[in-house]
Amino acid sequence: MRYATWSFYKEETFSVIGKHYLHNILSDVPPDTELIHFCCDRYSAGGLKASEQHHRYARCRPGRQFEVCGQYKAPDADEFFSVSANKSELLNILCNMWSQDEQLAQSIGSTRLYLGGGSGKKQSVLITNGTVADVAELESTQQEADTRMILHLVYSVQHEGVDSHYSC
């Protein structure tokens, strides 16, 4: 299991950010990788982690919610990530962009890329062999990526034949 902390440059479009993130994911794994699970934290306003997130970004400018769209330019990353809804919307646009990217669906080949997020907060999709499919078994409203990764691990053992003794 690998964790990544990513940011972006101010004034990059969200479309470019999505391409950078996808490149980072795909270039950071060995060529014979069979499974990739992509989950991010998604804290809602008033959620359990809201106060921790507020404390983390307290020194930043007061956060505000931004509209996240492919052609829109990103604000300062610290200001952007200080609002939970922005993080959730970024995850949504990444999952939507990637699941609609025909080149990705073709180039990923037999590697199975699971995306937690998408158009619904609990939706999960699988991209593989040029197709995109919903995975109902991975739907979750959990906010913590760590918690959802347990669900993804159990799914991989039960449905993908992953050895339960394998260390990620």
If you had to describe this structure to a student in words, what would you say it looks like?
- With 168 residues, this protein is α+β, with helices and mostly antiparallel strands.
- The protein has one domain (14-159).
- The protein contains 6 helices and 4 strands; from the N terminus they run H-E-H-H-H-H-E-E-E-H.
- It has helices spanning 14-27, 50-56, 77-81, 84-99, 102-107, 145-159, and strands at residues 35-38, 112-116, 124-128, 131-134.
- The chain has a 4-stranded mixed β-sheet with strand order 1-2-3-4, sandwiched between helices.
- A hairpin with a 2-residue loop joins strand 3 (124-128) and strand 4.
- The chain is globular and about 45 Å long.
- 23% of the residues are buried.
- The model has no long low-confidence stretch (mean pLDDT 77).
Descriptive keywords:
6 helices, four-stranded mixed sheet, 168 residues, 11% strand, 38% helix, alpha+beta
Low-confidence stretches: none
- The strand line-up of the biggest sheet is 1-2-3-4
What is the overall silhouette?
Answer: globular
Order of helices and strands: HEHHHHEEEH
Q: Please, how many helices?
A: 6
Cα-based radius of gyration, to the nearest Å: 16 Å
**Strand element count:** 4
Distance between the termini: 5 Å
Number of domains: 1
